[in-house]
Amino acid sequence: MASKVLMPNIPSKNHVAYSGSMVPRSHSSGHLCLPKKRAGTTTSRSQSHASSFTTPAMSTGIAKTSSSTGNSSLAHMWREVQGCNNWDGLVEPLHPFLRQEIIRYGEFVTACYEAFDLNPKSKRYLTCKYGKKNLFREVGMGNSDYEVTKYIYATPDVNIPIQNEPSCGRWIGYVAVSSDDAVSRLGRRDIVITFRGTVTNPEWISNLMSSLTPARLDPNNPRPEVKVESGFLSLYTSNESDNKFGLGSCREQLLAEVSRLLNRYKGEELSISLAGHSMGSSLALLLAYDISELGLNRLDPKLDVPVTVFSFGGPRVGNSSFKERCEELGVKVLRIANVNDPITKLPGVLLNENLRVFGGRYEFPWSCSCYEHVGVEIALDFFNMQNPSCVHDLGSYISLLKCLKRDQVQKDEENLFNRARESILSRAQNINMEPLKNAASNVVNLVQSQRTELLMDATILSLMNSFALYILL
User: Fold this and answer.
1) Which of 309, 343, 371 is the last residue of a domain?
2) Annotated catalytic sites, by residue?
3) pTM (whole model) above 0.85
4) Within this chain, do residues 130 and 266 fall inside the same structural domain, yes or no?
């Protein structure tokens, strides 16, 4: 089974209001809770679970790291953040650098939705609204320090995202590479490939054919036991065969561009980061497997370029052999999934990793037909009665990840005040000057009660603590 991630318990909050572009003001009650790791687990990866209620929002901004110290640290631990150790020690609690990178890649996927033209009267209908040089600026990501190098089109056998349209290439995502300025901040040259999902959930679900078929992506070793969902594979490999001047398949476009970029930046520290939402995460995983199976990321016998997938609300893609082969090839997958999101349960609602083995020892005869998730999972829990569709909304995923940081900061602040009060009162126990003792305690209580208006931080708290101790001593 794929691993799951746990996060620390946080006190519940009612009528939470988030300001700015993160999420709109909401009256939904919610909390973040993460149970302790269950005893007797057989997986080596940490398991966790986060819960919260939030409202949907599509965040389009992307922020750089604010301090040179943080940038330097990220540059030194980028391999761990990309999953070289399966994110061991980074997900419980969620490391700030990992959180930052998850949000950053999620916003790269957001750009796909923001830039996709769904206006039938537009000349760019079913393609990107903007040119490659202007994409990030137009969607509010002008400071991303990445350059788009290629747009990717897919030719579906089923109509996505618009029904009753002829089969043709639709813009599905893009390839981008980090700039020279970003290299020092990130610690390597990063090649990013992002995929959007379908526009609405019903259209997405209609595309699930729920039948496994051999991937056979490596002509030298077809591996018939490695099977993937036929609809995803068709979208990945189909081309405009009826038109000799038509587009090549999504696969052909991607492999050619990845090979070109790897050759161009050969000799540098490199990473290949793939990100997708919904069906887009399935394409990201297929591409990651394809790159690794063909050995495109193997620049020399001793050097493999890391291949990492950041999946948001993604479904299962293949069977157990596909999962095992991805792990053998070193493909790293971090799945961010809402437990209330039905897409993450598909395909294989019945035949999945939970019904493959009996008693932890004996495989059922149908095990080869069971779908399995790949990688490490960060399980979120959010739902809004007023807008149930938020359970699959990418903006809701990103907003909750941002809120986790906000709630953790508030929890840390409360712990600081509690430690300060305990320190002062413990030192005051041996003092008989009761009035001064009460005054010092009141100072801390007053500061705590007014911390929002005073914008208290750890430095001011330390000064107030010292002042109170001075009175007592």
Assistant:
1) 371
2) 278, 341, 392
3) no
4) yes
